[in-house]
Structures are given as C-alpha cells and as structure tokens.
Predict the structure.
Amino acid sequence: MKKIHIIGIIIIAIALAVVVSTISNSSTYAPFKTAIENEGSTFHVVGKLNKEKELIYNPEVNANLFGFYLIDNEGIEKKVLYNGSKPQDFERSEQIVVVGKMDGDEFHASQILMKCPSKYNGNQQDQLKAVSGETEAAS
Amino acid sequence: MEIQYQGEHLGFGVLGNILIILSFTAALLSAISYYFSFKQKSELSNSWNPLARISFGVHAVSVFGIVFLIYYLIHGHFFEYYYIWQHSNSVLPMKYMWACLWEGQEGSFLIWTFWHVVLSFFIIKKAGTWEAPVMFTMMIIQTFLASMLLGLEFNGIKIGSNPFILLRNHADFANLPFIQMADYLSKIKDGRGLNPLLQNYWMVIHPPTLFLGFAATAIPFAYAVGGMLTGRVKEWVKPALPWSLFGILILGTGVLMGGAWAYEALSFGGFWAWDPVENASLVPWLVLVGATHVMIIFNKNGTSLHSSYILCTLSFILVLYSTFLTRSGILGDTSVHAFTDLGMKGQLLIYMVFFFALAIFLSIKNRKLLSTRSEEDPVSSREFWMFMGMLILVISAIQISITTSIPVINKLFNLKMAPPADAIDFYNSWQIPLAAVIALLMSVGLYFKWKQTDMKSMAKKLLLSFIVSLLITIGVHYYFQFDRIQLVLLLFTSTWAFTANLDYFIRVLKGNIAKSGASIAHMGIAFILLGSLIANSEKTVISQNRLNVDLGKDFPNNENILLYKGDTLPMGEYYVTYKDKIKEGIHIRYEVEYLKADHSTGQFQKQFSLFPFVQLNDRMGNVSEPSTQHFINRDIYTHVTYAELDDKEVEKKTNEGYKPGKKYQLSIGDTITTSNSLVVLQSLNKDVDKDLLMLLESDLVVAANILVMDVNKKMHQANPVFILRGSEAFNRPVEITELGLRFAFIKIIPEENKFEIEVSEKEGNSREFIIMKAIIFPYINILWVGCLLMIIGTWIAIIKRIKKLRTA
C-alpha cells in the first residue's frame, strides 16, 4: 500500500504544479489602461480597428513592421506596432486581440488574432448584406 | 393570404424531417428494447431482442437516408434549403461536395452519428452476449446525437439545429422584404459556398477520419458501462480491448492528419500549434492510450480494473468535452477554428454531464467489485512500469486540458485569464520533459517481464541499444547544437525508444510480425517524437531580412523578406527569384524559383520552383496558402505573407507625376539602383550639339552618359545636360519613359571629381513585389515515417487481440 500512496502524492503534487504554472504563466485580458499602468508586462487587449485612421505598412521600407490604431472596449485608442507583415484581410476584421506590451505610447504586439466576419460559421449579418445587396440590384 | 412560392422543392424537406424524427425515436426505442433485453437475459426467450434490432435497423436506414438526402441536395444545388445555401454553391468541384456535408455543425454531428451506426453493425454481428448492454449504451448516445438535428423549440428552448430548414424560414432571412416575394428563389443566384480555407483534399479526408476516431472511443465506453449494468464488471475488458486499440489507431491518424493539413495547406508555419481545437482531440487520444495499457495489465494479472474503467469512460467523456469546447463558442478569442454557438450549448452540456454522471454512478455502485487485489506489483515488473507510463500520459493530458480550458475556467469563476502570451512555449516546457519520460519508459518497457524481472539479464539486453543511442545522440547534438537540455534529453530517450524496440523486434521476437505490434507502434511513436523534436526546434527561417532596425530580442522583426519581381536574393544556401504571378480563377499563384550558384561558372542553376498562392474570395476574405518542396532530409516551406493584389499596370498609366527625386554624388563608373533598374554613370561628354538643345554658343555644356539596365537586361541611354551660362547654372533633365525614370545633372563638384545626378521615379513606378517567408524543416520525414509505423504497429496489435478473443 505504501508505494501506491507515494505515487499518489507525487501525482497530486505534479497536478498542483500544473495548475500553479498555468495560473502564473497565464496572461490577462485587459484594456489599454491596465497595460499602460503596467508598462512592460504582457496583456491580451481586445478591441476594434479604427478604420478612420491609416494602416501603416510600407513593405518596401520594412516588410516586417505593421502599425494600426486600435480602440479597446473602453474606448481608449492606441497605436499598435506588430513585428510582421500585414495579415491578409486585416481591414475586414471585426474584432482584434493583440498580445503584447506597452512601450512608451505604443503597444508592441507579438501576436495578432483576428475575428473575421465570415471565417467558418461567422457572423450572419455579413452574408445577409451580400444576399440582400444582390436582390436590390436585381429588383 | 398565403404566398405561393415558386420553384421550391418542399418534398425533400418533408422527407428529411420524417427521417430525422424517425432516427431519433427509433434510437430511443432501440435503447429501451435493449435495456429490457439484457434485463430479461435470465429468462428463456428473449422477446425484446428482435424489437431492439428492428428499431436499430430503422435508425440506421434513417441516418443513411439523411446523409444521402443532404448529399443529393448539395449535388442538385437546392438553395431553398438554408444548409445547402450556406455550405455549398454551384461552382464547387465535385470532389468537395462531401466536404460541404460536414462543414456545418449539423453535418458533422450527422457524420459522427453515421460512424456510430457503422460500428454498431459490427457489435450486433460479433458481440454475442455483449450485444444488448453495449448496444443499449450506443443507442442512448445515438438518441442524444439524433436530438442535435431535431430543430424543435419549446418555450424558447431550442433542441438541435435542423439541416432541412428552409432559407425563407431561417431566422436570418425570414424578415427580409425580398423573402416575401413569391419568386424570391430566383433572386438567390448561388450558395455561399465552402470556405476557401477548407477547399482542400484534407477537408475531404480529415473530418471523417477524426469522427470515426471519436466514434471508436464510444465502444470501450459502452463496454465499460454495459459491464457495470450487467454485473460483469471484469469480463468487459477483453472484448473492449481491440476496440480501444482501434480507437488509438483511427483517432491518432485523425489527429496527425490535422497536423499534416496545418503543415501543408495552412499558414501556421508548422504542423502543431497547440491550438485548442487540436488539443481537444489529442487529449482523448492520450487518455485512450493510457486506458489501453491498463487494460492490457488487467488482462495479464487482474489488477488495474478500476483504472481501466475510469480511463475508458473518461476518454469518451473527453470527446464530448472536446465537442462542447469547439461548438459552444466558448473558445471565442483563443482559437482560430472553433465553431460559433448555434444555441446548442446547453444541450451539449446536458449530454456531457449525463454520461459523466452515469459513469460515476456506476463506478460507485460497483466500487467493491472494481477494486482488485491490494497487493502491489513489484518494481521489477512490466505492469508496474506500464502503470507509470499511463500516469505520465494522464499528467500530460491534464496539463493540456487545463491550459486549453482557460476560457471555461473564466466562465465558471468569472475571471479574465488569457492563455499564456507564448502558449506554444508554455506547452512545450511541460510536454517535452513528459515526452522524454514516456520515451524512456517505451525503451525499457518491453524488456521488463510480467510479475518479476531479472534486472541483470535485462541490463545486458539493453546495453547495445543504449550505447548505440548514446552515440547517435552525441552525433546529432554535435551537428545541431541544441540549446536546451530538455531537447537533448528527449533526443536521447526517443532515439533509445526507437533502437531498443527495434532491437527487441530483431533479437527477442526474432522478427515475428504477429507479436510485434507493441514494438513497432512504440518505434513509430519514438519517430514521431524525434521527428517533431528535430523539425520544430531546428527549423530555420531562411528569409532573413537583415536590413531592419533591431527592436530587441522580444520583438524579432526580420522573418519576412521583400522580393521584387525579377530580383534574386540569397536565402540560406539558395538564391530565390520571384518570377511571375499567374492568375487561375480565384487563385493567384506566385512563381518562386529557387536557384543555386555554380561557383565554377558563376551561373545560377535552377533547383526547383514553388507556387504559394492567394485565394481570392469576396465574401470570405483572401486566404494565402504555402507551398512546400519535399526532400528526403528536409522540407522547404514557402509562404507569401503579403502581396499587393491590385494590378500595378493600370496604376502606372493613370499616374503621370514623379516622386521627389533622389540626389547622388557619383564618380565616373559608379553604379546606383532604382526600383526597377541599374544605373551607371559611364562618362562625360563635352561635345554637345548646342543648336539641337537650343542653347547659346557661349554656354558651357556638359552631358552625362548614363547607361540604364532594366530587369530584363535591356540597355537604355540617358544624357542629361548640365549648363553654365555666365555665373548661372541650370540643367536639362531627360526621361526614359519606358522605365518611368527621369535624370537631371545638377552640379559638378570639381574638387572631389564628382557629379551630382538627381534620379526621379514615377509615382506608380514601384515594382510588383511579394513579401514572403521561407522556412527549412529538417528531417521532418522521420515524423511521417513514425506515423506510418504507429499505424502498422497498432493494426498488428488489433489483429493479435482479435485472435486471442476467438481462441479464448
């Protein structure tokens, strides 16, 4: 019986370590405000692209620098710089999650996740526009 | 007044709905009959069995009927049905028609149901006394799954989502004005089509394989539950074992196919990204592998019965959990390829909780019978180490599950946790050491004997493979210079796992194929680990751009490179040219040529061409897909990360203006580059025809002879003129209209013997370019060979277990 107890304790200890490491390594969804207050720490910021402002991408100068303006869910806007090429169809994204940290007045993103309106079974609204647009033209 | 809609084919929908209701009620009736059938077992006649089988037959026919009907509707483009409109269109090639069937959630539930029916046929035919209890569980599962297609609504509670709903009745369309017109159907020109991302042969083979794998986990579950229900708490393990091996085989193949798909056709830049959806199918597989190992222990010495029960049921419940994760919309921001919620979240949750509760209830009820003898397996026994291996697999599964479940944890406790910023790195930091331990257990595992092992003779047998692996590890490490100790450890243990099992196959089994299932499957897993270790940790991005500003280690920004059309740039050992783009329908293919320099002749020699492409789709957005050149010892992966899709030619003609010029101070013979040519200042010419330029005789005039070579190696001449009239200097620029270049001779700097030339380019002159990424994956073929070995080995093991069942 003893051996099985020792093994049990080790397993529980490892499982606990997994939980602790997951919590301590996890990032946080936060607005820009929190990211600014904790400059240098990594956050996931959820927001929308400011479509009024320009997208900064000059591949002929630097193919690996892409910038845009993101408005977070609290309405704060920040310039985001991303260290890669401009993702396909970026303009069409509905919601954007940027992973990274504040550096001065800019947010340096190491990852961009986009929710596009129609990838997989996306938003139906967009499809509706496509269909009703066609019908208007037809009638 | 009722509108008389034109052109609809409502008969199919009516038939479809009848089949759906029939499949649901027949499954329920069959389950009930099977229940009474095994309760009645003690009596002489079994009157319930025929009814159970007949209702199963009706269920099977209905499910096949639904599958066939949807396929027929897709094939005939009946867009009055929402599901058909949403997932297919009339221009789709034949080969993707099936893929449309399972693109949507309803269809993927259907294909899952379909596999359960197919597997149930084998149970009915072969399971004998196990038929009733196993089929009872299967039919309960089917009842739940069939309810997913019902599409009924009671007091706002939605049960299932019906694939035969009409477009005009769907919530998104019902209120649109044009739907109220009798001829609305004629306004719907075409379906929405299959997502271009999924128009790929993988989409044809991967989902059915994965769902067959999912279906296969249901059978060991059904045996375990059936065993508890009928009081045969021990006997279920033996007949369930070939099925759990079958589950390992198919689910494993499905998971690996997903990886291969991601690698070949998606732009992840690798074959495993620890994406929540990938994880959700890996975890049940790991648990099933654990389950199979303890079932083998039980078969051998009668211990580990409780673990067998827990893991068999858990693996199926995890399949349900994975379905819940990917279909409830809960993954939301964390995964790129989860489904959105179709309002079935609650239903899926009930489904999962029901089977979880059932499994726990039966386990508590039978706890006394389930606990096997309490004496311990000695440390020198094979069963002890197999049990350890199972525990490591479970830990690995727990780690993946917890991290993947962060969105669920957030929901439960109202937190705002996000996945680790570098999720891949986080998973690897746990999974690599665990994999190293697993590999170590695989290398020594088979050398342990059941019950007790003579350690000395075991060490003697292992010595050869140990030394060989050590030498290989040293050699490989010397070659690649791994930067982390865990990687070296995994390298050693997985190499040893391969050599030890190979040695076992040759020297112990003497090449006896029939008994070699375990050793071949373990060799396969060892190769999968080894291949992913080398290909992933030693992959090199060869499209390095060294011109960029360094933004620090955390912010690497040089993995994409700009390539102008016609230019040749060095990448790794290659030179790469962007030759051309070819438009084929909705695909724009970019021809990227890989060259090698022949140093003796100074010429480039073409090695191969790759055609990464961008797929244009107005409704769904553009998708870019990589192209990979395969070699025996490595793959070269090329991906266009950005390209300007508008046509540059048009722009050029409409825009006449020049951009502000650039001034260069040149000596004779100096070369400069513009975006589209090489420019050489060859010489100066003082003998200029002043009359022709309408200049005064007294003017001092110097012309520059400029040679311009364009990308096609065509030569052009430009002779801008510098004029000194008294103390006033001015110039006459000249244009090369063909290239959109303008040259002006600004001034002479006599003390340095230099001449200032201004070069202006036309606005629309910038040449076409692509931004691309190229990655070399070394020795990735080890991984694919491993997959093959794993499949072969597991198959051999299944055959062996089936034979044992027959002789028993």
User: Anything to note?
Assistant: The radius of gyration of chain B is 34 Å.
